[in-house]
Structure of LacI family transcriptional regulator:
Amino acid sequence: MAKKVTMQQIADQLGVSKFVVSKALSGKDGVSDATRERVIQAASQLGYFTQPRGYGQNRKQPANPEASSRQSVLVLMPNVRFQTAGSLYWGRILNGVTEALESFGLGVVIISEQRVDAVTSILNPDGFLGLIGIGQISTPLLLEVHRIGLPMVLIDHEDPLIPADTVFAGNVDASVRLTGHLIGSGHRNLYFLGNTGFSRSFRDRWIGYRTAMEEHGLPVQDVGDPMNRLEGIDGAVYEPELRQWLAKRKKQGTLPTALVCANDDVALVALRNLEPLGVRVPEDVSLVGFDNIHESGGGTSPELTTVHVPKEAMGRRATLRLLERTQDPKAPLEKILISSELVMRASVAELRTETETITEK
């Protein structure tokens, strides 16, 4: 049996005191961000976070099983980069979580704060059944939740240092199918639009696009391309940059025949800026999005080909997984993928080659 990894071992490896390691791992003030990061990395390498009966394993289960049914669940969705309850993506996931909790008769406390000290002030392990995290959450905050032993499930986010159950949409597979649909329609000059650093889902959609392109031997733009790093996530912020890029490509005669967008918002912004350039969708450029928000199917012409992400279902499944975790704390961790479906609409046209046209004649 492997020996238990202690704070003293971590301290010895880094040449700091055990007191510094303790503060860094507990998220308390008194250590610099650089030192905290060094401690976390060393602890991870030594296996401190994953060892049995170690970090995060000290929470006592309720003596009376019925007592847990009267507890609340903490739902953490830090308000960062438009990750809000009003979002057509994140908000729907939150709705799925809260509806499921209500159906089980559980209370819910929703926190949008991202400061560790503000959240830890209410983290009473005896007052919450567990935590459901939605979207991006900082490592120090997750470490604090893990430190007190509160069971947690993360939605659309994972942290390599924090062992936790996770729930994702099948973004990679869906993006492969979506890109494959364009390639199957004759398109060979495709371009990805969106901020791949915004979220795990955006990055996975880029990976799916790249995978499909590489499988067909087609050129892929560099991951550092400006159109992969569109500023922000709000169209009002990145629209000028995207408009300038489209106009430049139109003038040069180098517009792609198809645009694969990280989500429907990006696709709708692109559509709005192609029309003034005299570029028709789908006759001149095919356009696809992701998420299947309401506007993609009822508020635009042409209606947008996209991927339906079952957002509420992700929230419900995360809730169920949390309850399963509380009943079996030692069960293997799970990464749950919820399948997403392609929604075919009018924004994609078949691209016919000259050879095909001549053959038909």
In short: Residues 7-46 form one domain. Residues 53-70, 354-361 have pLDDT under 50 and may be disordered.
